[in-house]
Amino acid sequence: MNVLLAAAATSGQGSAGQAIGYPTLFLLVLIGALVPVVPTGALVSSAAVVAFHETSPLAMTLVFAVAALAAFLGDVALYWLGRRGMGSKNGSRWLAAIESRAPEDRLAQAQEKLSEHGVTVLVLSRLVPAGRIPVMLACLMAKWPVRRFARGDVPACLAWAATYQLIGVLGGSLFDEPWEGVVAAVALTLAISAGPSVWRRVRGLRGAT
Questions:
Q1: 166-185 burial string, b = 16+ CB within 10 Å, else e?
Q2: Of 75, 55, 40, nearest to 165 (Cα)?
């Protein structure tokens, strides 16, 4: 969490801060796309809060462009690594990592929707918490070429970056101090990300009683 706040804050401290902040944003979103541990949505929202309070008219555009590009490159790289694993007799650790994050029920749902709606499902998967990896695995199992996946992932990453940037703008507009907006944006994005998991657990507990 401290990394998120520091990365967002440095992007707003003049030209020197921007020189640090935008590459940091790019790197963390790229890593988060490859290794789904970094809460990249919260990171983009935090950077958007700081950009909202800047005087530079290009700040918001740069946050959007950097986030979308990093997410796209990370997605395509992970998909390419997954394709290599699918073609290998022994698989790969990248493919295993993708499979471990796609529960059977969610994978089956993703495969069904992908066969019915195609690229639309890929676009929506980045907007649904924990929806990206099951749909990516469904694309791998459907043997989509990397080029086809990349074409569908472009609007997915653009929509994702725009959505979390909007959350950041809303958080930034509520507070005078950037750090207050950052805290609010991070809390909101983490709540959105955790919502589906909490709801499934509640349903499971109700079903068990």
A1: ebbbbbbeebeebbebbbbb
A2: 40
* Residues 20-55: tens digit of each pLDDT: 588 999 999 999 999 877 778 888 988 888 888 776
Among 30, 1, 20, 48, residue whose Cα is nearest residue 168: 48
CA distances from 108 to 12, 59, 139 (A): 43, 41, 12
Q: What CA–CA distance (Å, rounded) separates 181 from 61?
A: 19
Q: Give the pLDDT of residue 70.
A: 97
Q: What percent of the chain shows pLDDT beyond 70?
A: 70
Q: Report how far residue 152's alpha carbon sits from residue 8's, in angstroms, rounded to the nearest whole number.
A: 29
115: tokens are: 């066969």
What is the pLDDT averaged over residues 55-67?
Answer: 87
CA gyration radius, the chain: 18
pTM for this model (two decimals): 0.79
Q: Chain-centre distance of CA 175, in angstroms? A: 25
Residue 15's pLDDT band (boundaries 50, 70, 90)?
very low
Which among 14, 35, 37, 19 has a CA at the least distance from the CA of 4?
37
